[in-house]
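User: quick one, fold this
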Amino acid sequence: MILKNALIYVNGSLQDGALLILNGKIISVIHNNSEDDVKSIQSKNEDGIVIDCERKKILPGIIDIHSHLRDMGQSEKETFSSGTLAAAFSGITTVFNMPNTIPPAINATQIEKWMRKAKNNIYVNVGFIAGVPKDINLKEIISIIELGVIGFKIYPLGSLNEIDWTNYLNVQKILSVSSKLQIPILIHPDWPLSPEETREIYNNGTLTDVPILELHNNLYPTSLEAKYVNFILDNYYKIIADLDLRAENYPILHFCHISCKDSYSLIRKALDMKPNLKVTFETTPHHLLLANTIQLTNPNFGKVLPPLRDEEHSLFLFNELKEGNINLVGSDHAPHTLKEKAQDYLDSPSGFPGFETYVLTLLDKVCRNELSLETFVKVTSENPATIFKIKNKGLIKAGYDADLIIVDKIPGYPINPEVFKTKAKFSPYEDYKTSVQIWKVFLSGIEVNSDDAEPKGNIIKRFD
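Assistant:
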């Protein structure tokens, strides 16, 4: 297949050119659109397909490092098929899947079932994040790693494994495992409130008619996100000192969905002081673009963890993204049913679908010259591939997988959740306008955003 007459993102900028794709790989990148150059690759074009891209932009496929594909006991919310189809139509060609399945993915047997369920049912590539086995069992951890998981997730608000992640001994134990086995530990940073504190904040909020999204923010405040980040970093330093670790043996630590300037500043300070720390973090599109003052037909559509924050935090984080100080973005795609979201605040679960707004909203900022295209590609494709060691992805380069998104700028139109491919047809981006058209999406050279696409995705494994 040849993609010609395109603007191809190469080495930080858009260049006129054409691509030759063969057996799922990029074979040649031609850096102009002359007929002679296109003819030079036509003889190698085995399938004879030539697509005129009409000067549209070709970017690397998006690698979304944070999603919840559900299925496994939660198929009413999402299935591997519906979730990855939503990703495919959004330009997302690889996703990482979190372990809060039913039952939770905390042992090798359950994770094998999880992977088997995905096989032949995924439209894009999927990497799996495991939960930590009970008692932080090293033998079981090794068995899970041998299955090829990307890393292990810890969640202090509702442990999947009966492990208290506010106990420093447990944190140090999992960090020492990370050091020994060089496997990433992904952190949901939030220090839990006591039931008494929760009741007091909730009762005060309802008595004074605090809006739901502001109340949600009060129940999971920025101070407790920062407290947990600080707690993890303190134990990270202690493990390094106690075990007298050399830099190559430092634990690998990743903070999920950083949502406020308090915790961001703690991580940035740590990295500024010791750049060789194996510490990374992500933020989400909604924590960059939305605040808890948004007006929604149902406020629970914006209920998420971490909560949407006061506007000062989203403005701060977006500015840091523009300045090149944030390296990773993840959607935290977390679908629920409309019935669940129609319940009252306390019963309605946190989370909303993110695949089908991720690219449309962030790339729209590029179209509006509020964010550079180079920054967008770095945080959505290049950096995820590099940081999480995903081979042959994240770049448009000869020898790399032909995971590609072709986009165009068009007149603005409102995002409509009713046409989402995910089962969760609601969004906090009600009537948010975008000027981005996702024209074609290719996974290993196969077009996946079409109604006759078949599930050809693969399971991405860390040590492949």
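User: anything notable?
Assistant: The first helix runs from residue 35 to 42.
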